[in-house]
Amino acid sequence: xxxxxxxxxxxxxxxxxxxxxxxxxxxxxxxxxxxxxxxxxxxxxxxxxxxxxxxxxxxxxxxxxxxxxxxxxxxxxxxxxxxxxxxxxxxxxxxxxxxxxxxxxxxxxxxxxxxxxxxxxxxxxxxxxxxxxxxxxxxxxxxxxxxxxxxxxxxxxxxxxxxxxxxxxxxxxxxxxxxxxxxxxxxxxxxxxxxxxxxxxxxxxxxxxxxxxxxxxxxxxxxxxxxxxxxxxxxxxxxxxxxxxxxxxxxxxxxxxxxxxxxxxxxxxxxxxxxxxxxxxxxxxxxxxxxxxxxxxxxxxxxxxxxxxxxxxxxxxxxxxxxxxxxxxxxxxxxxxxxxxxxxxxxxxxxxxxxxxxxxxxxxxxxxxxxxxxxxxxxxxxxxxxxxxxxxxxxxxxxxxxxxxxxxxxxxxxxxxxxxxxxxxxxxxxxxxxxxxxxxxxxxxxxxxxxxxxxxxxxxxxxxxxxxxxxxxxxxxxxxxxxxxxxxxxxxxxxxxxxxxxxxxxxxxxxxxxxxxxxxxxxxxxxxxxxxxxxxxxxxxxxxxxxxxxxxxxxxxxxxxxxxxxxxxxxxxxxxxxxxxxxxxxxxxxxxxxxxxxxxxxxxxxxxxxxxxxxxxxxxxxxxxxxxxxxxxxxxxxxxxxxxxxxxxxxxxxxxxxxxxxxxxxxxxxxxxxxxxxxxxxxxxxxxxxxxxxxxxxxxxxxxxxxxxxxxxxxxxxxxxxxxxxxxxxxxxxxxxxxxxxxxxxxxxxxxxxxxxxxxxxxxxxxxxxxxxxxxxxxxxxxxxxxxxxxxxxxxxxxxxxxxxxxxxxxxxxxxxxxxxxxxxxxxxxxxxxxxxxxxxxxxxxxxxx
Amino acid sequence: xxxxxxxxxxxxxxxxxxxxxxxxxxxxxxxxxxxxxxxxxxxxxxxxxxxxxxxxxxxxxxxxxxxxxxxxxxxxxxxxxxxxxxxxxxxxxxxxxxxxxxxxxxxx
Amino acid sequence: xxxxxxxxxxxxxxxxxxxxxxxxxxxxxxxxxxxxxxxxxxx
Lengths: 850, 108, 43
Known about the structure:
A: 31 helices; B: 2 strands
């Protein structure tokens, strides 16, 4: 039940938008206001890259998954003058799209007739986008609507405050109109920013579907974590980018919301998603964000001054699918989370301590135990020439310094640590985009290939830029490789191939796995062991485990069930099967749980009959019967011999001790002298545990076939009991035992055996062995009519097993319908929920319970 | 340097007198530190902000320079800056700062 | 003569270097008057 949510898919996309650098990047728009004739603005266009150069740029190829981050680390710095050989527009994680097509996507994303394209341009773009197989025919058709000719576009820019959309730097091919004449939040500037964010978000969400194997209809929630805000003047940040983008991208069953945290937004959003999945609120949550126009060419002045191309010329997007544990994909450790708190302060060591040192320490992990750290992964090719240094490298040095302070690392190892636990940044400086999350895609490969066992994602945010606080911010979390067993709820759903050549092929057994003391891996192993024998276990867990198990039995999906506890009615009791140590011989212990009769001797006799049924149905043709030398053994022997005399087929075992006899001593138990060893079920239960776990020291039941099937007259369900301490071999053994009983038509054998026993005078023999009890029972039956039957779901424990019938009758007398039964800790009286309080009162008054 | 920051630098210098003002920087790299230092002494080299062409000649240091470190409580310094000092190239920053100060500072 | 004592200090911190508030804490111990403190962000 402790399955951590998994990172099931990731997509990363870029739209090369060189013209938007000029018209929409804030460094440039600010410059045009304060210094319109500046040399920078004159020089800038010469530094814009071609689409081909954007594609072959190595960090971009790493971002979309065609190159590995190690490839970048192995490239000599700087990167802008190198090309990735065989660079492609389409990558493992996503794609790169040129400016003109991106405008087409903006048009598709616009549902308010704000985006207008030049008529012929719109037609070209539609054709190009159609080839990508990303959008529906209807969406592609929508590009052709609401367009204009060149003159109208120019008029809209010059007279109507529209923002222009350009290609080749100066060629006007479209506009984004304002959505309101007065409201600044709906101005053309804001609408363009928001539509760009939405469009780049949509591209990523579509690539997520295309590049990962999942049903988009299964996504229940989408969280957007970009840095924009949408809303009108009455709710400036009302939202909801998430739902707006998911609508266009085709996630029909999702709702969603926006999470904001500056550059740390994606890391926060991942925590939200992981928590929603871990809590079981949703099974599939997508964290997603588009990019921002404002940051295009943000460090352009430095790049131009140094003769570099403008490297901040792409709108980025990313999407990550977080799902319930599947036993395969890397898991988000929702319990190893770092957070920069209000009182943490801004000192770098405090910041890194709160995000890295504290959470790892709390989890008992050393800093060196995290194989890879993913802090903000800004591309140093962009930041270094701008004087901001190599941001990821600075973070790695700080983490290494912290490790030295914690004595996890020797000072001389710092450089090595940075190399081994770090990565060269490849993310575009689109604010929130580098927030550790670009590593989630490569991390899936690293975890699944065994290269990385644990990684840490670290997001940091400059809250002070909002002028609301001077605080800094950040959150972090650990992602670990999924070993398929780490308490994963759905790890049991791991694909297990049933062996088709095994004897039991085709047998299906419902397995309520709830409650094992040995964890999920024990359950998984049991399922695997059974599969090797050809048995398919249908595992159900959680609160509904028993309901699902019973449903599978009732509708015939499964022929038998295995469970760790079950309230059998009085009259039904289980026959266990163990391996005896002396000769490795199988022996049936009759019985091990449940109560076949409230009278001790009657119970022993009925146990013997149940034992014979179980042994016969398990393939022992003429099972020998011995009676453990316990209280009531002689009376039981007398009764069984009488049955035999009357024609009931029973073969008695002979004790291996010199004096022989049907009564079996401890020695006979170890020798397995009898095939069926008769005893009361409390003793039988002790024996089961001894025989199953004596080789392991007691905690782990490693041997045998478990506590066996519940057998009683007329009982027609095959339910096998194992214990919470049963190990995988015992659980698998129980399934094998069940498969044998199914194969040999246990029900028919049971019916025939009971019929034969009755024909041999069982009822009279039992009456004679327990006359007083029988008389009493008859009297009770005459006196007390049974109230109308109702569904009994409440249970009252604590009643002596001998008193169960009388307790039931006492309740009947009071008009309360009740049934006796065996709970997992002893006998119970079952009543309806409504009658529980009253029943407790009556039973307390009558002295049945204390 | 951010335009708002340039405006504040200008206003504060006018209010208290440039000789009474000291600028402390926290830039990660020598180059960025040098640019900021130049801005508050010789004026905005990018000619974008309010300090373009304004030669305030303010006294300017990086927090990691020994001149400043020696005046700060050692415990506080260690707690607030210690780790970053390990990460940054302090000699390079100091050299760059010295270079700017020797050229443009008026109140040393 | 002390550089910071009694002076009006303007702090221009760096998000990925030493942030403004961290420099403030230091400057206060040297007897400086904090006139203005901010943190720049290049990413």
